[in-house]
Amino acid sequence: MAEPLLQEQIEINAPVAKVWALISDFKRMPQWSPQCRLMKPLGPLRQGTKTVNLNRRNFLFWPTTSTIVEVIPERKLAFRVDANNTIWSYELEPTETGTRVIESRHAENGVKPVSNLTVHTLFGGVPNFERELVDGMKTTLARIKAAAES
């Protein structure tokens, strides 16, 4: 069973506007995420816009779609992965030295049974896959930090 919340955060020495510009440009997601190979929005950055995505783990590739569920400029961006109903979000908070970014994967209502079966069959089970997701969050945030601070 999926954990209800996976979360990581990082402090970035850059203004919120600069960090927001990086995070809200979904076409750049493959630069940040070790799992994402493509994230193409099918319209402007607003609630209801769909994205087409391609993910990778080792030699396994799989497509997904997602729907943007929340956009609060320079504060929060969230999208729901349609295949499993998880919601991924980025929350930005100004700090004295820049920006705190919190990346979360929300599964408070669980995930679709087919998703659990797929994760069990192809990814070594839910706990193993979720550890990989948290490691991926750490990598994603570190890459965003490096880009924002350069």
TrEMBL record:
<dbReference type="InterPro" id="IPR019587">
    <property type="entry name" value="Polyketide_cyclase/dehydratase"/>
</dbReference>
<protein>
    <submittedName>
        <fullName>Polyketide cyclase</fullName>
    </submittedName>
</protein>
<dbReference type="InterPro" id="IPR023393">
    <property type="entry name" value="START-like_dom_sf"/>
</dbReference>
<dbReference type="Pfam" id="PF10604">
    <property type="entry name" value="Polyketide_cyc2"/>
</dbReference>
